[in-house]
Amino acid sequence: MSQEEKYLAHDLYKEDILGRANVSDSPELLAYYQELEKYKTGALWTIANKIEPWQPQSASVPVLWRYSDLREHVIKSADLVTPEQAGRRVVYLNNSGGKGMSTAVGLLYSGLQTMQPGESASAHAHSSSALRFIMEGRGAYTIVDGQKMLLEENDFVLTPNGTWHEHGVEPDGSQCIWQDGLDIPLVNTLEASFYKVHPELRQAVTEPVNSSIALWGAPALRPQNVGWDKPYSPLFRYQWGPTYEALQRYASIAEGSPFDDILMHYTNPLTGGHVMPTLGASMQLLRPGFVGKAHRHTGSFIYQVAKGQGYSIINGQRFDWQKRDIFCVPSWAFHEHVNTSQTEDACLFCFNDLPVIQALQLYYEEALHDNGGHQQVGG
C-alpha cells in the first residue's frame, strides 16, 4: 500500500463534505463555531483537510476547446462590437466553475482575440504579463514600448507586465485571430493589479520594425554594448520558422522524452531562463506515430495545436485534437500525448505558470508506472 493510500485509509483522514477532520458536531461545538464567527475567526480543524490537502486538488478540469466550434463566434464578435467599444474584442475560455470568472486553468487566463484590416486597439499597460500566439490571418502587428513587430501564423509574442503595448492589423491585411494568454487570475489573487491607458491612446514607434529580432534573435549570439536590465526577455517576437527548424534539428539527433518527445522551451536569450517572471512557454514536436507515456506534475498548462493531429489522455479522459484546437492540463493531472499520423509530425505550443511554481520550489513530477505507463480511458 502506498503512503497516499495509507493516509486515505486512516481514520484521521475521514471528513464530510465541508472538509472537516474526524470531529463530530455537538450542540456545544456548533455554538462554539458561531461564537468564533462573530470575531471573524474559525476553528482550523473544520477546514484543515480542505486548505491543506494530501496532494494538489485543482479547481479546474481538463477541457478541449475546438477551434471549429469557436471560430465562427470569434469572427461574429467583429460584427457586434468595435475595438473602441470593447477595449479588446476577445472570447475568453472559461474553466473556473463560476459564471463571469476568467480562469482557463489554474490561475491562467486565455482568450481568442480578433481584429480586422485597418483596426487598432488603444495603447495600454497593466500589471499582468501577457503573450500572444498567432492563429490565422496576415498583417497583424504588436507595438511594445515603441518596438513594432510584424506577426505571422504560429509566431509567439510577448507583452510583459508594465509595458505599453497595442495591437492592430495593417490596412492591406486580412482578419486575424490570435490566442491571448495572461496571468490575470494570479495577479488578482495577489491583489496587485493595475491598469492604465496611454495618455495619447497611441504610442510612437521609436525603434526599427522587428528590432528585437535583429538584436536578440540570433541563437547563441548577443550584440556588443547593448544593455538590458529588465526581468523579462528582450526578444519580444519568437518566429515560427526558426522554432520549427530548431525542433527538427533536435529531433534528428535526440531520442526524445518518453512523455513529451521533442520539447523545447522559449527562453530569455540573456539568461537562458523563462521569457517572463510569471509565464513560461514551450513548443514540442511529436514525431509520426509517437505514443507518449503518462506523467503528472504541478503547474497549470494550456496547449494549442500548432501543427498536425492526435489526441491526449488527461486524467483518464481522451481528447482528440487538430490544428488550432486548445486544451488544458490542470495541476497534478496525469496526461499523455499521441500523434495519430504515421507520416507527419505534430507540434504543440504551450504556456504555463512554471516560472512561479519553480521560483517557489513547488515543482513536483512523477510518472505513471501502472499499465505500462498508460492511463485507462474512462471518458
UniProtKB/TrEMBL annotation:
Residues of the Cupin type-2 domain: 112-176, 284-350
**Protein's UniProt keywords contain tRNA-binding:** no
Task: Name the source's superkingdom.
Answer: Bacteria
Q: Name one GO molecular function term.
A: dioxygenase activity
| Keywords annotated in UniProt | Dioxygenase, Oxidoreductase
Q: What is this protein called?
A: Gentisate 1,2-dioxygenase
Q: What is the organism field in this record? A: Xenorhabdus mauleonii
